[in-house]
Write a structure and sequence with these properties.
This is SurA-like protein. The protein is 48% helix and 9% strand. By secondary structure, the chain is mainly alpha-helical. The protein is globular, with a radius of gyration of 18 Å. The relative contact order is 0.22.
Length: 256
């Protein structure tokens, strides 16, 4: 219950500005954030680690009853895109809290997350997720809540809708009723703005194979945690994809 209370309000989104014109385009690199580089090999290592440990855990549990799980049951739902989203958001979050002098308490552990994240606690992916929750909550607590808009509400709704953990096809009126005061949507938009600015200052570039980038997000239903990836949300609400460079005029019009 402690983990759920800590995580219940954590939901975030940000846009990563792709600076392809700056020469940051090596095919062996998954993402650049300032002077930090995440190689495709690094992404593969984290992905392979979670898959290997998940498969081993499934086989060990099945062995207790003498069963042999089929190959598809030995594969975690984690994707390489999930890994890139997590690495980039973590780096931007670290930079944002450092720039603001925000203290980040160590509150969430991989062991708390593992059952509902559905990955082994000793997987690096679970450890990175725990760090991200701590950073995003600490940073979010320093930001004033953003204005709520229909676009922001529906962006969050559609992202959760993709997980199958919420009723699909609802109009905005029904979604607003479901979300109540929408505090977590306001927090998401405020955090989005802070991380977007950090991405601009750092100079972030994402390999095209991992675009559009999204932020690892989680919300509590009261009974369980729902993990999903939310696309970029403008500070005023509308969803915007700024993972691909735009012409100067278009960028100015979009506020990019």
């Amino acid at each position: 219950m402690r983990a759920r209370r800590l995580l219940a309000a954590t939901v975030a989104a940000f846009g990563v500005l792709s600076l392809g014109a700056c020469g940051k385009s090596a095919p062996s690199v998954a993402a650049y954030v300032g002077d930090t580089t995440y190689s495709v090999a690094r992404v593969d290592d984290i992905y392979d680690d979670v898959q290997a440990k998940f498969g081993a855990a499934v086989r060990a549990q099945a062995a207790q009853t003498g069963a042999t799980p089929p190959p598809e049951q030995q594969r975690s739902a984690v994707t390489r895109q999930d890994v890139v989203n997590l690495l980039v958001s973590l780096e931007l979050g670290r930079r944002a809290v450092a720039a603001r002098g925000v203290s980040v308490p160590d509150q969430v552990t991989p062991e708390q997350l593992a059952p509902e994240l559905r990955v082994p606690a000793d997987a690096e992916y679970a450890k990175l997720w725990a760090e991200w929750i701590d950073i995003s909550q600490a940073l979010g607590a320093t930001l004033p809540p953003a204005e709520l808009s229909d676009d922001a509400v529906m962006a969050v709704y559609h992202a959760i809708e993709k997980t199958g953990q919420i009723q699909a096809g609802l109009p905005v009126v029904k979604v607003r009723q479901m979300f109540g005061e929408g505090g977590f949507v306001r927090a998401a938009t405020a955090l989005s703005s802070a991380l977007r600015e950090e991405a601009r200052q750092a100079g972030a570039s994402i390999n095209p194979r991992y675009r559009p980038i999204g932020v690892p997000s989680v919300v509590s239903t009261g009974q369980a945690l729902v993990f999903y990836h939310l696309p970029y949300i403008d500070q005023d609400g509308p969803v915007t994809d700024i993972s691909t460079p735009q012409a100067p005029a278009a960028s100015a019009a979009a506020g990019a």
